[in-house]
Amino acid sequence: MLDALDKELLKAVADLERIPKGAYNIRKNGKLLGREVSANIDIESNADGTGIVITVKPGTKNESVHIPVILSQAGLHDVVYNTFVVGEDADVTIIAGCGIHCGGSAPEGHEGIHEFRIGRNARLKYVEKHVALGPGKGKRTLNPTTKVFLDEGAYAEMALSQLGGVDEARRLNTAELGPGSAIQITERVMTDGDQRAESRNELLLLGTDSKANIVSRSVVKGNSKQDFYVNLEARAKCYGHIECDAIIMDNGISETVPALKALHPDAELTHEASIGKIANDQLMKLMSLGLTYDESVNRIIQGFLK
Amino acid sequence: MLDALDKELLKAVADLERIPKGAYNIRKNGKLLGREVSANIDIESNADGTGIVITVKPGTKNESVHIPVILSQAGLHDVVYNTFVVGEDADVTIIAGCGIHCGGSAPEGHEGIHEFRIGRNARLKYVEKHVALGPGKGKRTLNPTTKVFLDEGAYAEMALSQLGGVDEARRLNTAELGPGSAIQITERVMTDGDQRAESRNELLLLGTDSKANIVSRSVVKGNSKQDFYVNLEARAKCYGHIECDAIIMDNGISETVPALKALHPDAELTHEASIGKIANDQLMKLMSLGLTYDESVNRIIQGFLK
Questions:
Q1: Residue of chain A whose Cα is closest to the Cα of B261
Q2: Which of A45, A101, A276, B258 lies at a CB distance of 3.0 to 4.6 Å from A72, suitable for a disulfide?
Q3: pLDDT tens track for B83-115
């Protein structure tokens, strides 16, 4: 059922060597390749056939769902709308990700629009990796959207990364936080060549004692360009923090625009950002340990994106 | 020549108890109240009569110019266009500022549009204070603009403050930095009641080894609102830093939107921001020393805006 290329892509985006344990839904070239549900986690196609609905029963603990997407069909631009309903008190890990293999000159692309409804006191860990491989010159586009709605006391950890090979990305993350809920978003994006990546983030702190923390790590190589926007809007007693760091190499270009909007007197918002080259003293230290220049740079970047 | 009210305003905006030493130009209710030039500093009305041109001779050292504006005429909205030409290697201090006294229900306002051309290796210290006083209910508006052009090796220190009483402010600061030049902007704005203040800052780092540092301190009391924007754009090997801190009290609202644009691979840009209430432990400490709550708050705010 999985050929060698499929396996390479699944390994890259979801650390999968074989069909995963537990619930999963594997999509290849716009079609279902395989699906498994569990006693607590249901996966169904949505009403209009544009994606899937994943429902996690209240109280489900220590379960995971793999929903990787792989794409290797020239000219295909795949769009899916997936909904995740995580029941009260559940604790679940969802591993998503999209791998594109481009062998020719035709463009290939994927857009996953993911909506998360996280119930009271439920916890979600969501991991999403994006990568594009292959010798083809076709444009590879990956435009992910996540929309997170956090009920009272809910928690979401979103680990979002674009590892390389993606020519164009328009990334959008939105979150609405209820009372006592929290979200941690970590986004890591590496671009090279003439690649472009834009990340927009809209975080609405609506509930008392809600917390949002967003960390962005960008590595901008070659002639690539990355733009990062955050709108952190506080409408309650709450805490929000933005941290964005970019390493520029070669002729990379980076723009960072974080907006902090304290619309409530008990809001507490903070921000740190830095954009620059790799520090020379860090390079010198690694090179003095016997690493070459390129090895040292690589080591630092891997650490930065870890 | 100066009545009691004039003196009160001049003291508030320019620390002047009497007519200053050195060059000065005092403007009252849209008209010239007094002018003095020095051997090195010339002041002339501009060609179209809309303001003054202040010319500082190359090499001038340790001289100052006072150019306060006072306003106490109901219904007057005074607009001036002033130009400051600071010659090579000069080192000069310019003390500007505008004080409004409002006694009735008619609005009063002032807009000073100030353009600075700072020659090679010249140094400018520019101090501008804004304040509005008086029992009147008329709307007090102060919309200052500074446009700074820094030649090679030039340095500008801009200390800009709005101390209170101003109902509406649209503040704009722009700077274009040549090679090896540097600018330090410190803006302090306090609002209360239903006051609104907006500060826009556009800093263009054009020259190699140019440096920009902008610090914003906001105190947002009552139902007031402050918006702070920076666009820090790096087009050369350069260094830029933004620091914006806001203290929110009562029902104050604050928005901070700093944009960091690294358009050159050797640009280094950093940013820190925090918006929040006064820390409780700071208050407790002062109150344990015998200060009342209000005294403690006041002490902290004065320190923050110092």
A1: A255
A2: A101
A3: 999 999 999 999 999 999 999 999 999 999 999
Residues of chain A with C-beta less than 8 angstroms from the C-beta of B258: 257-258, 271, 273
Who contacts A20 (Cβ-Cβ below 8 Å, separation ≥6)? A14, A64, A66
Determine contact: B276 vs chain A, CB below 8 A: yes
Chain B interface, mutation test: which of A216, A274, A278, most B Cβ atoms within 10 Å? A274
At B218-269, the pLDDT tens digits run: 999 999 999 999 999 999 999 999 999 999 999 999 999 999 999 998 999 9
Residue of B nearest to A273 (CA): B271
Q: What are the structural domain ranges in chain A?
A: 4-278
For residue A18, pLDDT beyond 80: no
pLDDT for A290: 87
Task: Give yes or no for A279 touching B (CB within 8 A).
Answer: no
Cβ neighbours of residue A286 under 8 Å, at least 6 residues apart?
A295, A296, A299, A300
For the segment A286-292, the average pLDDT, to the nearest whole number, is: 87
Distance from CA of A36 to the nearest CA of B (A): 46
Give residue B155's pLDDT. 98
Chain B positions touching A257 (Cβ under 8 A) are 257-260
Half-sphere exposure of B297 (CA within 13 A, CB side): 12
Candidates B248, B269, B270; nearest CB to A265 = B248
pLDDT (average), residues A116-142: 96
Determine, for residues B262 and A272 on separate chains, whether the beta-carbon distance falls below 8 Å.
no
CB contact under 8 A, B258 and A254: no
Q: How confident is the model at residue A1 (pLDDT cuts 50, 70, 90)?
A: low
Q: Could you read off the pLDDT of B20-62 as tens digits, one per residue?
A: 888 999 999 999 999 999 999 999 999 999 999 999 999 999 9
